[in-house]
Write a structure and sequence with these properties.
The complex is a heterodimer of chains A (413) and B (70). Chain A has 413 residues and is of the alpha/beta class. Chain A is built from ten helices and 14 strands. Chain B is an all-alpha fold and 70 residues long. Classes of the chains: A alpha/beta (413), B mainly alpha (70).
């Protein structure tokens, strides 16, 4: 009879072999097939897929005990939550362990975060290059946003806190803008997410009336952004004829989706703010326009008023001036008239005097004709003896001539 | 369907009115018409921002309480 091992003996033997060959923990590259946590420990199904095909060629169970989890959580760079995600490629330092009862297990002691990050970045870079090569990488970024965003297509999972945050922020905006939101639900994590979101995008693209599409997800226990680095989703966003805004809470670098989208912001709340500010900017432009129009309108009216006033002034001035002119003319006429009248009377007076003189002369002639004589001395009429002295030369004017005599004798009456 | 008045076209029309004012090509007779139109457009936009259900035909029919800026 051939000797047979008991199961325990077999397993114990295997355990010793394993322990002997793997005394120290070793570094292993692998992929996370499945994972779940319970009681603070993380249990994983690690896998390796074939180079060419996606066929499974290796598999092993692994565990991160709670104490190790605590220790790893303290490290930064990439949070544990981002690394231990189904589908991620990781590099772990693990103790190979075989237990008689519990079988083969890898006990994780350390995780090389950079490896995962590196793989991530490589995959992301590849996708980006592919999209750039196809010439569609910048398509969505180059779309112009409408002046006002009022009709939003929302892609988010219904239960997500992010959705509530967004809705609350947008419905309670201080400017009281009305924004209509239509929800297109989709899972936002896991391996089906990319496909589902892409599907939603295509559906939305066919509908009319949406101003933008937003893809939002809030924080949560696990930050699984791997869906947003996938080619299919990147392509769907790039090909979307409506601007896409992402608010998926990326922590480190932007995902492919973030980079391909028109705009990416950090959180769903930030998306709401983005929309509000966009509309507020438009409103301020309106205000500015309105004020400019008002000011210029006023200016036109002012100018007209000034023109009218000018004309009015001119009319007043001219009529006043004309009035003054007329008054002046009348005064001048008045003066002239006075003067003419004065002259007239002066002339008449002179005439009169001349007439008087003439009359007087005529009078004298008739007296002289009657035999009387006029006596003058130095052209003065002699009217009295007192004016004459003896030996004076006198002129005697007769009717038909005059004689000069000398006084010989005088005799007062 | 009548030509749709939306933010874009309203904004463009407002800019045109402003341009005309800046170039001083509006006569004093035309001015109140333009100003009234500008007011209509501004009111329409501002109200639509706060109320997505605003019907377009309200703009066409004119509103009762027109606010003049002067």
């Amino acid at each position: 009879m051939v000797e047979s091992y008991s199961l325990f003996e077999l397993n114990e033997y295997i355990r010793r072999v394993v322990a002997l060959n793997f005394a120290e923990p070793i570094w292993i590259n692998c992929e996370i097939g499945q994972m779940n946590d319970s009681s603070g420990h993380i249990f994983m199904d690690l896998i390796q897929k074939g180079e060419e095909t996606d066929e499974l060629i290796a598999r092993a169970e692994a565990v991160i005990w709670k104490s190790t989890v605590q220790k790893l959580l303290k490290k930064s760079l990439l949070s544990l939550e981002q690394i231990i995600v189904e589908g991620n490629e990781i590099r772990i330092k693990a103790q190979v362990d075989f237990h008689e009862r519990y079988g083969f297990k890898l006990i994780v002691e350390e995780i090389d975060a950079e490896y995962t990050l590196g793989k991530w970045l490589i995959r992301r870079t590849k996708v980006i290059e592919q999209l750039k090569k196809e010439g569609i990488f910048y398509f969505n970024s180059q779309l112009s946003l409408p002046k006002v965003i009022q009709n939003v297509a929302v892609i988010s999972s219904t239960g997500a806190a992010g959705l509530q945050d967004y809705l609350h922020q947008i419905q309670h905006n201080p400017y009281q803008y009305q924004v209509k939101n239509t929800l297109f639900s989709a899972t936002v994590q896991g391996d089906k997410a990319a496909k589902k979101i892409a599907e939603r995008l295509r559906t939305i693209a066919l509908k009319e009336g949406f101003d933008i599409v937003i893809i939002i997800r809030g924080g949560g226990a696990r930050l699984d952004l791997s869906a947003f680095d996938e080619y299919e989703l990147g392509k769907a966003i790039a090909g979307c004829p409506i601007p896409v805004i992402t608010g998926i809470g990326h922590d480190v670098d932007q995902t492919v989706a973030d980079q391909v989208a028109h705009t990416d912001v950090k959180t769903p709340t930030a998306v709401a703010d983005f929309i509000i500010h966009h509309n507020a900017f438009f409103e301020s432009q309106l205000e500015h326009l309105g004020n400019r129009i008002k000011d210029l309108g006023n200016l036109v009216v002012k100018k007209e008023n000034i023109l009218l006033q000018n004309i009015q002034q001119k009319i007043i001035y001219e009529s006043h001036r004309k009035k003054q002119e007329n008054i002046k003319n009348i005064e001048i006429l008045e003066q002239k008239l006075k003067y003419k009248i004065q002259s007239y009377f002066q002339n008449k007076n002179i005439e009169l005097e001349q007439q008087e003189k003439l009359l007087e002369t005529l009078n004298i002639q008739s007296v002289l004709k009657r035999g009387y004589a006029l006596i003058t001395q130095n052209n003065n009429k002699i009217k009295s003896i007192d004016q004459i002295n003896i030996k004076d030369r006198l002129n005697i004017i007769l009717n038909d001539g005059n004689i000069e005599v000398e006084v010989v004798h005088k005799n007062k009456k | 369907m009548a030509k749709k008045i939306n933010y874009e076209s309203a904004f463009e029309e407002l800019q045109n009115i402003l341009l005309e004012l800046e170039k001083d090509t509006i006569s004093i007779d035309e001015l109140p018409v333009k100003i009234k139109r500008a007011n209509e457009l501004l009111t329409f936009c501002k109200e639509k921002l706060k109320n997505t259900e605003l019907e377009i035909h309200q703009l066409m029919n004119g509103k009762d309480d027109e606010k003049l800026y002067f």
